[in-house]
Design goal:
329 residues; 32% helix; binds pyridoxal-5'-phosphate; binds iron/sulfur cluster; alpha/beta
């Protein structure tokens, strides 16, 4: 199968969602299957073929595999880890809109994702791919129009790029009609999974209005960046899109100076600047990914000695009720 010839929708529809199939395909020992099935009941496996292709066969410790493989250890309760760690409900003025930080509003475009990351803070609300409906959007747009402080609108999710371009184009057009909004930002994991999502149809609407386009990718490990992604992003950048990346600091995946350094350098190869490195949200089932804050801060300090300042991400965490994300290194 030549993955490059598939459309992004075809890629998504071929995602692997059966733990037994995943283990067999990657030639992994069958003894992890019972645990995988249990964790999969709680938050199901989902991994598209092009991401799978970047995973080394026969290697349980593969850093990409670890992000997607359900494990029995997820079923163990851990103190301080809860089902809804961010308690976002109270910053949700109308359905589909989060206005937590004054100058920017976040619009939840779709609730589905192209991949299921085991550390996801939404793992206990794995709502299916429901798009926010038109009525909610028009309410959200009215809210944004009535709040002149909002200079930037962020399309998020789930993954906003799961929505079809004609829908996003209409939304972008409506946002650009609100004078005080200057910037349209997209947060998406899809570029790292399926680069062909960033096709001409996407670029036409995303770069075709007065709003400054910013794309924030979600990449955690240098092995996620292949030549196909680098080539695609070159075009995206040439069209005037600012590219930033956010990562999550994950035990056993990117919790070393060497990996974080390689990640920043590889991102820069792809024309992306590191933006945030998030400490893990304490969601039940993800405790085994935790890197404590003191260790995270010393990793960042060491990274600063080895990289140019602009290649060092800000180490950030969410603190409920705080007027911005909190940068801790
Ligand atoms: C992260 C986040 C933003 C954006 O914050 P920046 O610091 O500008 O990247 C906006 N709204 C919500 C709800 C967020 O979680
Ligand atoms: S892409 Fe983001 S929202 Fe979706 S499962 Fe992964 S971490 Fe969660």
């Amino acid at each position: 199968m030549n993955l490059e010839s598939l459309s992004w929708q075809q890629e998504l529809s071929r995602a692997i969602t059966d733990p037994a199939v995943l283990l067999e395909h990657l030639e992994l020992p069958a003894d992890v299957l019972p645990g995988a099935l249990q964790a999969h009941q709680q938050f199901r496996l989902k991994v598209p073929p092009s991401y799978l292709a970047k995973i080394q066969k026969g290697t349980l410790q593969d850093p990409l595999l670890q992000q997607v493989l359900p494990l029995g250890i997820e079923m163990q309760a851990a103190p301080g880890f809860s089902v809804d760690p961010l308690a976002e409900k109270h910053v949700n003025p109308i359905p589909g809109l989060l206005h937590k930080y004054r100058s920017r509003a976040l619009l939840i475009v779709t609730s589905g994702c192209g991949i299921h990351c085991r550390y996801c803070f939404r793992r206990h609300f794995p709502y299916e791919d429901n798009r926010v409906n038109q009525k909610q959007w028009s309410q959200a747009l009215t809210y944004i129009a009535a709040h002149p402080d909002i200079q930037e609108v962020i399309l998020s999710g789930g993954d906003p790029l799961l929505a079809p371009d004609h829908v996003l184009a209409e939304l972008g057009c409506n946002i650009s009609a609100i004078d005080h909004v200057q910037t349209l930002r997209i947060h998406s994991r899809l570029p790292a999974l399926i680069p062909q999502r960033l096709n001409e149809e996407f670029l036409q609407w995303f770069t075709g209005n007065r709003l400054k386009p910013v794309l924030v990718t979600h990449i955690n490990h240098p092995q996620e960046i292949d030549q196909r992604l680098i080539n695609t992003l070159q075009t995206v950048r040439q069209r005037g899109v600012t590219l930033l990346n956010q990562s999550v600091l994950l035990r056993g995946i990117n919790d070393s100076v060497a990996i974080l350094k390689a990640l920043s350098q590889r991102l820069f190869d792809a024309g992306i600047l590191p933006y945030y490195l998030h400490v893990l949200d304490k969601v039940q089932g993800a405790a085994h990914f935790e890197v404590n804050e003191a260790e995270a801060q010393s990793l960042l300090q060491a990274l600063r000695y080895q990289l140019s300042g602009y290649l060092v991400p800000r180490l950030a965490k969410e603190v409920a009720g705080h007027p911005s994300k909190v940068v801790i290194a």
